[in-house]
């Protein structure tokens, strides 16, 4: 297999034909994510405190990315322009919008940072609501109930787990992703795009997404919260923020897709 055939098979075809992720592009994107996250942290850590306030201020941009992705899922944008709204290019687009807004806010007033993201995300959501029919209204209530119940139990043990408010938001976002995946695969005929979750789903069934998330995220949060010191607080807060984003972004996108039957 030549270089072009390799790139086409493992990278281009997965985008053009929406084949989902494969081991090669998954590993590539994971490496790119780790490098990007490291560089972003190195630049922002002297300028930003990564706490629950920063995560909530950034949430409108996460919502923007998820809802914009559904615009492409629904077919409103055609190739080749639609590729811009697909992985990995959509991450670059949303990052540029978010980073620009943050830099402007840091030079003016920090409390204005969420506003561009809120305006843009609400505009995209309004577009979706005006142009698509709600097919499965129950998806978000069901996913929120599942995630919220688990977080409530987590909250009851928060003292023993040294869990703060930020950790509860992180766990909720990850469980929203797991619950929406479970509901979509189990009841609506969707399938898992990512390689590792797909392996466990094929092995045990869609329900495994909930305990799988708990088994990974709760120990991770415990390690972060129990080892937190003044010196590394911002680094650990940044790790939480990354996990926060990686939960809410696909969870909201999945929920919107299923809600609109896309």
From TrEMBL:
It holds the Pfam family DUF63. InterPro entries: DUF63 (IPR002749). Keywords: Membrane, Transmembrane, Transmembrane helix. The chain crosses the membrane at residues 20-41, 83-106, 113-132, 138-157, 169-191, 203-223, 235-252. This is DUF63 family protein.
């Amino acid at each position: 297999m030549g270089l072009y055939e390799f790139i086409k098979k493992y990278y281009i075809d997965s985008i053009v034909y929406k084949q989902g992720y494969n081991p090669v592009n998954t590993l590539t994107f994971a490496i790119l994510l780790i490098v990007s996250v490291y560089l972003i942290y190195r630049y922002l850590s002297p300028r930003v405190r990564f706490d629950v306030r920063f995560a909530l201020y950034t949430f409108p941009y996460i919502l923007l990315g998820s809802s914009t992705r559904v615009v492409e899922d629904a077919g409103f944008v055609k190739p080749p322009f639609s590729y811009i709204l697909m992985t990995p290019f959509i991450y670059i687009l949303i990052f540029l919008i978010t980073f620009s807004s943050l830099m402007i806010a840091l030079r003016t007033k920090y409390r204005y940072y969420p506003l561009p993201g809120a305006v843009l995300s609400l505009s995209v959501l309004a577009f979706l609501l005006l142009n698509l029919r709600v097919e499965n209204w129950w998806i978000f209530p069901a996913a929120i109930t599942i995630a919220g119940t688990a977080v409530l139990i987590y909250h009851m043990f928060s003292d023993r787990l040294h869990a703060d408010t930020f950790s509860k938001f992180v766990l909720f976002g990850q469980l929203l992703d797991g619950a929406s995946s479970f509901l979509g695969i189990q009841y609506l005929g969707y399938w898992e795009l990512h390689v590792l979750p797909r392996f466990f789903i094929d092995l045990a069934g869609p329900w495994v997404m909930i305990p799988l998330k708990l088994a990974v995220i709760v120990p991770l949060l415990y390690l972060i919260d129990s080892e937190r010191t003044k010196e590394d607080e911002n680094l650990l807060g940044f790790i939480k923020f990354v996990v926060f984003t990686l939960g809410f972004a696909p969870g909201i996108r999945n929920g919107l897709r299923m809600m609109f039957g896309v």
